[in-house]
Amino acid sequence: MTTYIEAGKQALAEAMRADPRIVALGEDLGRGGVFGQYRGLQQEFGPDRIIDTPISESTIMGASVGMALAGQIPVVELRFSDFALCAVDEIVNQAAKARFMFGGQAKVPCVIRQPTGMWRSSAAQHSQSLEAWWTHIPGLVVITPSTPADNYALLKAAIACGDPVVYSEHKDLWPLEGEVPAGHRVEIGKARVAREGRDATIVTWSKTVHVALKAAEAAAAKGVEIEVVDLRTLWPWDRDAVFASVAKTGRLLVAHEAVQVAGFGGEIAATVAEHCDDALKAPVRRLGAPRIPIAYSPPLEDQARVTAEQMVAAVVAMTNARRGARA
Asked: Please, what are the domains in the chain?
């Protein structure tokens, strides 16, 4: 068994051994990184490839864009997804647009690691899930692995992608253990069915996959079989897998930890409503966090969580609703 954090470290180490162009840079990487996801790598690869940087996300990201344009493949560590906001110009106006603005003559192959989500009372400036921001930007690939095996395979796929990738690893998944098959590979843009079901589909990603699986188990006790689809990547996202599941179940709930308002769930819900109308037995529903800052206090933090109980209630309401009625 391998933890989620160790699977990512293993993927990076294997990629660096195979390709001398790959480097990692960020704050305190020589000490292992803030969560230990780089522990031991500077000892193996040296400070020229596991690079400690100043405390300046715009500098880290700007240097990475230059390195990528010059032929290297930087893996950029931004510590928390919230801190990526200090490097928005470099990510959005430089990395994402370079291939287009240079007519395909230049590209920025880099992986922008952004640990995301709520974790141990980290409060409003260290707990956000901002994946919808990045899916909005043409030129960026957005990846959200939920298991150790996928963290291993998708980090390797991101490094090999050739485009800038926003790579969101949920902080609460670091200790999660799972099997990582040797040579495990996952294609960017391919979802997986984490649980089969016949009555309703929950589409989700990252840590919320595990909440959905808990909900599916609870719903089964009520005689409702939920199919859970783990998107794995948000851009590109696997529309065919979602359409196929909705065609089977006739009901869709999209759930995510991020704020529901303008969340990526809205894109999925609208696309399914546009393309699967004949298959739907009830209106599409969404679950996301309320539009509030995430508090330090655990009871207040819990007010921002999407729970398995909420998912079960939403699915049961859909299964009881008639087509055209409000679920």
From this structure: 2-178 (3.40.50.970), 192-320 (3.40.50.920)
